[in-house]
């Protein structure tokens, strides 16, 4: 049975091409966004207290790693929301090479690294993606990971 999203559009395992990259629009967080999130979900002082953050190694409050990943997820959905996802099964090589600061525009980039048919279920494929949240000012990453995902196949008998 073919699967489509609510708009009748989906990219299936067969449609994904190794090396294909998708880039989202840009978004930034205000200092208040960072403080509000941190106070609720990650109350470390260098995320949740603007005055104390001035004495951190960053010289200001910075977004928590959890918030950084949440921003990536929102932006990635713009470019990957039409994929016929089953689920993610793991992330590897998760890194935060630089802090996400207030008012810094970032965008998500997702690149297909590899794909193979599932060895246990002919209705799905396994796709490894490189995920990045990039500072749009210089293209450098603030967060990266590689994700292994299960993706629906358009037709279980396809040979892709």
What does this structure look like?
Helix content is 22%, strand content 34%. Strand 4 and strand 5 form a beta hairpin. A five-stranded antiparallel sheet has the order 1-3-4-5-2, covered by helices on one side. It has a single domain, classed as Hotdog Thioesterase (Thiol Ester Dehydrase, Chain A). 29% of the residues are buried. The chain starts with 20 loop residues before the first strand and ends in an 8-residue tail after the last strand. It is an alpha+beta fold and 160 residues long.
Map the helices and strands.
Blueprint: E1 21-27, H1 31-41, H2 45-48, H3 50-53, H4 65-80, E2 85-95, E3 106-117, E4 124-135, E5 141-152
Structural class from helices and strands?
alpha+beta
Q: Structurally, how many domains make up the residues?
A: 1
- The CATH homologous superfamily corresponds to Hotdog Thioesterase
Mean pLDDT across the residues is 92
CATH architecture: Roll
CATH class: Alpha Beta
Provide the β-strand percentage band. 25-35%
Strand order of the largest sheet: 1-3-4-5-2
The gross shape turns out to be: elongated
